[in-house]
Amino acid sequence: MDAFYASVELLRYPELHGQPVVVGGGSRHQPVVQADGSGSFARLRDYVGRGVITTATYSARDLGVHSGLGLMKAAALAPDAVLLPTDFDEYRRFSRRFKAAVAEVAPVIEDRGIDEIYKGAALPLFPELE
Q: How many angstroms separate the CA atoms of 42 and 85, rounded?
């Protein structure tokens, strides 16, 4: 589930589709809902600290921003990128929904974390022939 956390954030904030978005840093970068219902988002250019990127949208990756990169370095590459804090409760909620949907079509899956699953090895139909 590549860029899963970023994808969850785009579901929450659809107005950010197509924009470079970075997830990481501290919780002080919460979006602020304006009187008209639109969101006001922190930008990488305003970040100060030692945080790292948890994940980034493909638009941000096109600018050289990727998971594990320091946010200050990322700000030099993509100063206008939106910065959102991590929200693991929300990621777990979407992860459970996604895994339940996959389990309906692939009953054998290996669960490796919030954002990783693998198709499990199929059980042999005729184990006595193996």
A: 10
